[in-house]
Amino acid sequence: MSLPDKGRLLAVDWGEVRIGLALSDETQTLATPLETLVRRRGKRFPMTRFLELVAGHRPSGVVVGLPLTGEGHELESARAAREMADGLAARSGLPVEFWDERMSTARALATIREQGGSTRGRKADVDALAAAVLLQHFLDARRARAR
């Protein structure tokens, strides 16, 4: 199921402990950091909070970052992200699309440093910003394909 081209999109940047979230505007032009969900290692995805955010922001679809190796291969983390995405789609009823998330965290860290900021003690901010970087890349690529 492909994502609609109108309405907000919610991005999920998967991590074993922290899951960054970002949201687009209604025109799918601009992505902004939303929140970082935290779970203890080995515990379930915080679905209740995710569904609260879905109800509050009413996205039309979800973009899930797919963690790939530098060569573009899927390892265990990619399989875990796919499994999580299946659960998100089933529980929210929203269409889900995957997007290569390689370098999203590195780009988020670089952005913070370029602005003279520090990442010390700001892991949650970095993860939400990484989700925004991921979503913005998706939006820009989608717009370029449409041209």
- Give the SSE string: EEEHEHEHH
Number of strands: 5
Largest β sheet strand count, sense and barrel closure: 5 strands, mixed
Q: What is the number of helices?
A: 4
Distance between the termini: 22 Å
Q: Identify the CATH architecture.
A: 2-Layer Sandwich
* CATH level 1 class label: Alpha Beta
- What is the topology, as strand order, of the major beta sheet? 3-2-1-4-5
Oligomeric description of these chains? single chain
In helices, the fraction of residues equals 40-55%
Low-confidence parts: none
The CATH superfamily label reads YqgF/RNase H-like domain
Proportion of strand residues: 15-25%
Which helices and strands occur, and which strands form pairs?
Elements: E1 9-13, E2 18-24, E3 31-38, H1 47-57, E4 61-66, H2 76-92, E5 96-100, H3 104-114, H4 123-146
Parallel strand pairs: 1-4, 4-5
Antiparallel strand pairs: 1-2, 2-3
Could you explain the architecture of this structure?
The protein is an alpha/beta fold and about 150 residues long. It is about 45% helix and about 20% strand. The chain has one domain: 2-Layer Sandwich (Nucleotidyltransferase, domain 5), CATH 3.30.420.140. The protein has four helices and five strands. A five-stranded mixed β-sheet has the order 3-2-1-4-5. A hairpin with a 4-residue loop joins strand 1 and strand 2.
